[in-house]
Amino acid sequence: MTDQFTAGPLTTEAGAPVADNQNSQTAGAGGPVLIQDQLLIEKLAHFNRERIPERVVHARGAGAYGTFTVTADVTRYTRAKFLSGIGKETEVFLRFSTVAGSLGAADAVRDPRGFAVKFYTEEGNYDLVGNNTPVFFIKDPLKFPDFIHTQKRDPYTGSQEPDNVWDFWSLSPESTHQVTWLFGDRGIPASYRHMDGFGSHTFQWTNAEGEAFWVKYHFKTEQGIRNLTQAEADALAGKDPDSHQRDLREAIERGEYPVWTVQVQLMPVAEAAGYRFNPFDLTKVWPNEDYPRITIGRLELNRNPENIFAEVEQSVFSPHHLVPGIGPSPDKMLQGRLFAYGDAHRYRVGVNADQLPVNRPHATEARSHGRDGLLYDGRHRGAKNYEPNSFGGPFQTGAALWTGTEVGGVTGTHAAPAHAEDDDFVQAGMLYRLMPEEEKERLIENLAGSLSQVSREDIIDRAIANFRRADENYGKRLEAAVQALRG
């Protein structure tokens, strides 16, 4: 760990030497403090402004730097330069997080985990903003603010309310698959190192010939999957709220660098329209038997941040940070996030958040005409701030980053195009039936423990009906467990 302040006199923020950092200036030895003490004013004013607004979601997090190494030739699928050859290495920063908890919440809680990777490529930063689950609760961004409101504190009680959580889930049948994930064994990872990561959304890869493929990302932990039971998590959260952050930092300090095998599933664009379910539906996975996972690389974390605020709290990730050869898909949730993430960071950190060291490109230079605003450092000096210009400024390339998607129809609000096997319950039932009996028992116990806290019978009945539609045995067992707890 480096420390640039090991020698020399203490100074003010403006560089003036500090004579006394122990005693405020006063009117005599026992008199009141003087407003002329600018060191005191500076320190108190800075202290009042040291925090920035926490993230609305994913507020509680930890991060580390590392390296992504390509292990397979994928140039037939994408022209992204950081994927252009076996053995090619790219620096990365990975931020893990919980979703619903505030900045001061505990790590060991039942909640999805954010898995956001920033690749510092030679063509600019590529952000892959995913989770530790391959699916999500909803499929349309219009519902996202409502969903998050149910996960956060109720405006009247000031607490997270089971009524709100289960009312929304029961009225949103597409959530059944993700809820099954969340209340299963993988709902509480033992650490950030012992869980998988997923890009979750469908993205587009485009090769040098302009041929496009739909792609899903998987990060498979080489440390092995380890989870906590609810009882273990409750004890750990009370004993060590920083358990996951501490585990990650100390593992890297010991030289036990966590590693993930990076895999992708690839679908030719022409197959999407006729696929048996909507391949852009975030509540569904692509079965491996249809599109087998292909190993393409290795991701290792090997360096801790030196300042959590500067490098973790102020780090920003956005799905719109793309590079040539990688693009978005018609996934509605992804389309909403393309705007929402960048906008959240402009509000939370400032319009120049991308200029901070953790966020700016490391392997190339950012050349834009953006000027002024909070955190602007004057890096452009007197260069012209418009394009086109006649003074040698940055210019457009004319080369598309990805292949366009054919669209048609009348503008308006539409449900997603129907596919032959579109269903909100099939994959949730498949996931349940894949679980060993002991895991099914824990799933039912976890669900019943939460659902039994709901005050209204109609919400409970509606939720159980969704699980019954996923699997009759699933719903029947859950109903019996809830009734037993409610007496």
Automatic annotation (TrEMBL):
Region described as Disordered: spans on this chain: 1-27
GO cellular component: a single term: cytoplasm
Keywords, alphabetical: Heme, Hydrogen peroxide, Iron, Metal-binding, Oxidoreductase, Peroxidase
Binding site residues for heme: Y341
Annotated EC: 1.11.1.6
Coiled coil: none
InterPro entries from the UniProt entry: Catalase, Catalase_3, Catalase_AS, Catalase_clade1/3, Catalase_core, Catalase_haem_BS, Catalase_immune_responsive, Catalase_sf
Active site: H58, N131
GO MF, any single term: heme binding
Stored Pfam families: Catalase, Catalase-rel
Catalytic activity as recorded in UniProt: 2 H2O2 = O2 + 2 H2O
Named cofactor requirement(s): heme
Residue ranges of domain Catalase core in the record: 11-395
One example of a Gene Ontology biological process annotation: hydrogen peroxide catabolic process
Similarity comment: Belongs to the catalase family.
Name of the protein: Catalase
Source organism per UniProt: Streptomyces aidingensis
